[in-house]
Amino acid sequence: MSIENTISTAIVRKFSEKLLDHLNLDVAIVGGGPSALVAARDLAKAGLKVGIFERKLAPGGGTWGGGMLFNEVVVQDDALNILDDFGITHKALEDAPGYHTLDSVEMASGLIFGAMRAGAKIFNSVSVEDLVFKDGKVNGLVINWTPVERLGMHVDPLTVIAECVLDGTGHPSEILHLATEKAKIKLDTPTGGIIGEKPMWVESGEASTVENTREYYPGLFACGMSANNVMGGYRMGPIFGGMLMSGRKAARLIAEKFGK
Ligand code: 48F
């Protein structure tokens, strides 16, 4: 066999094996932002089979760009233990006790690496376009290649079956929207629907992101900005402690469902 053929055969075979091995999951996570990556690492460490489906080529969500493309972000004391678990470096702010800065590129790459090293698999350039919803229960995801979605090509999708689905899609809460609009699910919110994100208030947004991280319908959880949007929390900008702690909380709640 020529080397050209060997390379192509190896890639097609290995990717197919990986996808086949992840068509039936304990936890399917939509979006590879910071909260989802923390959840994925913790869930994989708990022994669960976890797949992340991320629309973009590069996972990491809103972490890469820091604040307005200045590639530094801020994290508060409460979340340092999570950064330490991933081996991501941080530096205390001398003039603001309790707050720390870190390089947003190190954070994004460190979170991705940590989630994968723990055993979670990331399928990038894959968009989740629908839910599998049977007998009133969320059963998994409907997936397609992002270029297919972007080009509006009429190509039927594939499905991934999962015990639990975690919406980590950030500000748009895409999966919870699908749940309310297509599956006609009533979410566990005061209105049964999505309340919608409020403007910026850092302290409130940071606290509510963690508070609002929970199960919104049996088997359907939300973390990060998605959880905050559902419950009408405030946005917080480039401070990331709430996102990291939200991921950890989502993993704990989901792991409890599996008796882990
Ligand atoms: O928004 P995002 O970074 O998720 P997060 O964990 O973190 C929010 C912060 O980055 C920031 C913030 C903190 O101050 O406010 O915004 O809530 O990442 C969400 C990821 O989900 C992907 C999207 O490409 C992004 O990388 N995503 C969204 N919808 C889909 C999706 C979809 N339908 N299918 C696949 N991926």
Number of helices: 9
Runs with pLDDT <50, length 5+?
Answer: none
**Which ligands are bound?**
ligand 48F
List the helices and strands in order: HEHEEHEEHEEEHEHEHEEHEH
Instruction: Report the end-to-end length measured between terminal Cα atoms.
Output: 47 Å
Over the alpha carbons, how many angstroms does the gyration radius reach? 18 Å
What is the number of strand segments?
A: 13
The 3D shape can be described as: globular
Question: What is the residue-mean pLDDT, rounded to a whole number?
Answer: 98
Approximately what portion of the residues adopt beta-strand conformation? 25-35%
What labels describe this entry?
260 residues; alpha/beta; 9 helices; 13 strands; binds ligand 48F
